[in-house]
Specification:
heterodimer, A: mainly alpha, ABC transporter involved in vitamin B12 uptake, BtuC, two-stranded antiparallel sheet, 4 strands, 2% strand, globular, B: alpha/beta, Rossmann fold, 3 domains, 6-stranded mixed beta sheet, binds adenosine-5'-triphosphate, binds magnesium ion, cell membrane (chain A), transmembrane helix (chain A)
Chain lengths: 329, 498
């Protein structure tokens, strides 16, 4: 009798152990754990932390990185990389602002911002698929070109951008920032895209082994165009939100954003070698980055430390993952 | 007590809950060549991974010349003179031949500067020993054919005389000429005192070139015989527990007009002189040729993977737009490429998703994957090809090499193509599964599918082909009907332009 009970218990313990093991094997889990730890620590360290206002603020900060990172995730899963997103944020914001100002039309302003993002994405895609320029180099070029254009268009001086743009950047739906709502909707949409659609399958296959994917009849080039276009478009949306929040489109907007975005993607468990990655992971990654930023502000720690810590967290999260995965090569 | 070069005693190994090796005992004397045979997934590569130090056994002992082996890594094994040439190519494409041969052991001066000239000279010797005398050691490896890359890996293993050389299916991408050269090398190494373990699915090769043949079945050694005291039928029986040899079943070709019509096809890299070929419905056309004959180039150009410089292709009378694989697949052309690791599998994908990769159009509606359709279709094919796996959601790289090959084959079959292109489709597939694949090719042909299969194995050509088209140096030099087909005639044509 007692023997049976112990046997049953060991079986149960084993299955729990197994579940834990599979969970721990995912990088999302290590990121979620770090996230939780930071939340617990912060709730003790600052009474302001758990106020609704602060939490929504974190959400809003995370939302732009997360939105742009959604596109970047698809790019990286397809074995590419888009270094131009930060500059495209700036270019889209000033294009939208200038179009809105010159035409006086809010709709055209929004369209101009998104259109500039999409155009930059397509430009990257053409450099990659038609001219066979490695995406790292191609988007590095675009990074510079887009920033330069933004500066030329404005003469280096911020342009005011309000109206509908401020709704994107600072509006609220039932107290929740519009950008946060968008982030959730887009995350659901992209989760669906990645897991349930043919296009999603093409993206994973292209990144996993482009030659095999091509020989299997997958349109690798079209898939690459799709992911870069989406990444550009979302960078455009990011620019709109950031500029709207400030009521002004600075040509410097989004400088250095590509690092946060790529960090969020990598934290979320997407492999730089392509073929692997998940949407929920990226959202967690973006939340963690924003949470850390907030923690440093609340704790009054120098922003220089923030830069160091962000780097450490990435190395830590990816390191845990690497150790668990073992030497797979 | 004589000491054995290698003594494997009671070795077991499990991957998670699956026990792959159940206490293997094997003794190998220096100076002997031992053939290791077994079905796909029998555990051959796993056992050799343990011997070479890349996996650790769960239980049991290994001795090399009487001293216990406790390898912590492949490096330790190499330092003791154990060289393992893997089943899958592992050359580094962007490096030169010489750099590949000396990878990990660069000849360097005191300041760490690599001695290129010495490396090139010694590479040349190693290359000559595997019959690649004509290759410049400075050639970049990815420009070479898979067979040549395979030989380079072997050259790498024999730069220094090994004590134990393990060759895991080394001949699957080699032509008969190259293979003969390799067998000569094996003999020479054995005569110089090495022990050689040779894994193959080609029984004649084992019978003709080994002293002893051992068979592994489901992780246990089931037979150990001298090569001259056994034969093909016995070996097959040991391997699969029954005799199964596929024999020519008669043609499925219908006497209707040509269904697939190829007119003056040539590739943009100018490997090919224009090829014209008609294939009837249900006809199986084999392409034979030596390495470099241009068969792969021809198939890949036909399929749209390589740019065509000229020519036309008609599928059931409709012209096919060349140079775009998705279009070809949509119009009913599917291909099983040569080289499953580089061109076949999607390594991070599950078996199921690997099988369905060419069929996403049909498995989705309005761009959405249809729930359950994929599992069902993939499971059916996996079952009919008897792919050995735990479940279809398993990552494909966890399967044995031959079973990965079957999954890639399943992918092309799922398309239900009008024209099926097979480039060495039975590489690394065991005898039993080979006849199953031949069986499937025959059934597909009966349903009216046209098949072009490139094969370097004459028995395979003779077992399945209605017609044999021979290539030599990029040119189609002849076409033999069933009644004209013989090993002698095929080989004579293959050497036509040499
Ligand atoms: N890393 C792994 N994880 C889980 N299972 C594995 C792993 N490697 C091999 N296996 C399983 O172990 C079994 C033996 O595989 P192994 O590669 O040794 O077969 P093999 O005899 O070399 O076959 P083949 O002739 O097809 O190359 C197979 O069922 C395979 O699925
Ligand atoms: Mg094997």
């Amino acid at each position: 009798m007692t023997q049976e009970v112990t046997a049953a218990m060991t079986v149960e313990a084993q299955s729990i152990k197994k579940l834990l093991k599979t969970l721990l094997a995912r990088r999302e889990t290590s990121v979620a754990i770090i996230l939780l730890l930071v939340v617990i620590l912060m709730s003790f360290a600052s009474e302001y932390f758990f106020t609704q206002r602060n939490l929504l603020n974190i959400g809003r900060q995370a939302s732009v990185v997360a939105i742009v990172a959604l596109g970047q995730t698809l790019v990286i899963i397809a074995r590419g990389i888009d270094l131009s997103v930060g500059s495209v944020i700036g270019l889209s914001a000033v294009t939208g602002a200038i179009v809105a100002q010159t035409t006086g039309s809010q709709v055209l302003g929004i369209g101009g911002a998104l259109g500039a993002g999409l155009a930059a994405g397509l430009f990257n895609a053409v450099l990659y698929t038609r001219f066979h320029i490695n995406p790292f180099i191609a988007t590095l070029g675009t990074l510079s070109i887009a920033r330069g254009l933004a500066l030329l268009m404005t003469g280096g001086i911020p342009v005011s951008f309000n109206g509908w743009a401020s709704w994107f950047g600072a509006g609220r739906i039932a107290d929740v920032p519009v950008s946060l709502v968008m982030m959730f909707l887009l995350a659901v949409l992209f989760f669906f895209l990645a897991t349930r659609t043919r296009a999603g399958r093409n993206i994973y296959a292209t990144g996993d082994n482009p030659t095999a994917a091509r020989l299997a009849g997958i349109d690798v080039d079209r898939t690459r165009v799709l992911v870069f276009a989406v990444s550009g478009l979302l960078a455009g949306l990011g620019g709109l939100i950031l500029a709207g929040n400030l009521n002004s489109a600075s040509p410097d907007l989004g400088r250095g954003y590509e690092l946060d975005v790529i960090a969020a993607v990598i934290l979320g468990g997407t492999a730089l070698s392509g073929g692997r990655g998940s949407i929920p992971g990226v959202i967690l990654g973006a939340l963690l980055m924003a949470l850390l930023g907030n923690a440093f502000v609340l704790l009054g720690i120098s922003s220089h430390w923030q830069v160091v810590t962000k780097g450490l967290v990435i190395v830590l999260a990816v390191g845990i993952d690497g150790i668990q995965r073992g030497r797979e090569d | 007590m004589t000491t054995h070069r290698l003594n494997i005693a009671g070795v077991t190994k499990s991957f998670g809950p699956v026990k792959v090796l159940h206490g293997v005992d094997l003794k190998i004397a220096p100076g002997s060549v031992v053939g290791l045979l077994g079905e796909n997934g029998a555990g051959k590569s796993t056992l050799m991974n343990i011997v070479s130090g890349s996996l650790r056994q769960d239980a049991g002992h290994l001795h090399l010349d009487g001293t216990e082996l406790a390898l912590q890594s492949v490096r330790d094994g190499i330092d003791l003179g154990i060289r393992f040439v893997h089943q899958e190519l592992s050359t580094i494409g962007s490096l030169s031949v010489a750099e590949n041969i000396f990878l990990g052991d660069y000849l360097a001066g005191r300041a760490g500067v690599i001695k290129r000239r010495d490396m090139a000279a010694r590479s040349q010797e190693a290359l000559a020993s595997v019959g690649l005398d004509r290759i410049d050691p400075n050639t970049i490896v990815e420009t070479l054919r898979p067979g040549q890359q395979q030989l380079i890996e072997i050259a790498k293993a024999v730069v220094v005389q090994p004590r134990l050389l393990i060759l895991d299916e080394p001949t699957s991408s080699l032509t008969s000429v190259e293979a003969a050269k390799l067998f000569e090398l094996m003999r020479k190494l054995a005569a110089d005192g090495a022990a050689v373990i040779f894994i193959t699915h080609k029984l004649e090769e084992a019978l003709n070139n080994c002293d002893r043949i051992v068979v592994l079945r489901d992780g246990a050694l089931v037979s150990d015989e001298l090569a001259d005291q056994t034969d093909k039928a016995r070996l097959i029986h040991h391997m699969v527990g029954k005799s199964s040899v596929f024999e020519w079943k008669g043609s499925a070709a219908k006497a209707s007009d040509a269904q697939i019509s190829i007119r003056g096809l040539c590739d943009a890299d100018a490997h090919l002189s224009p090829v014209s070929l008609d294939v009837g419905a249900g006809e199986v056309v084999a392409l034979f040729g030596l390495v470099g004959a241009g068969r792969t180039e021809f198939m890949e150009t036909l399929f749209g993977f390589r740019k065509a410089a000229g020519g036309e292709v008609f599928i059931h009378g409709r012209p096919l737009r060349l140079g775009h694989v998705p279009t070809s697949v949509r119009n009913g052309v599917a291909m099983v490429p040569e080289g499953r690791k580089v061109r076949g599998i999607l390594p991070s994908h599950s078996v199921e998703r690997n099988i369905s990769a060419s069929n996403l159009d049909r498995l989705s509606r309005f761009g959405l994957m249809r729930a359950g359709a994929e599992q069902g279709a993939a499971a059916d094919l996996a079952a009919s090809l008897r792919i050995k796996m735990e479940n279809a959601k398993q990552v494909i790289t966890r399967l044995s090499g031959g079973n990965q090959q079957k999954a890639v084959f399943a992918r092309a079959v799922m398309v239900e193509p009008r024209l099926l292109l097979l480039d060495e489709p039975t590489h690394g597939v065991d005898v039993g599964a080979k006849s199953e694949i031949y069986e499937i090719i025959h059934e597909l042909a009966l349903k009216g599918m046209s098949v072009i299969v490139s094969s370097s194995e004459l028995p395979e050509v003779l077992a399945i082909a209605d017609r044999c088209v021979v290539f030599s140096q990029g040119e189609m030099v002849g076409s033999l009907t069933r009644s004209e087909m013989s090993e002698g005639e095929i080989l004579r044509l293959a050497f036509a332009n040499h």
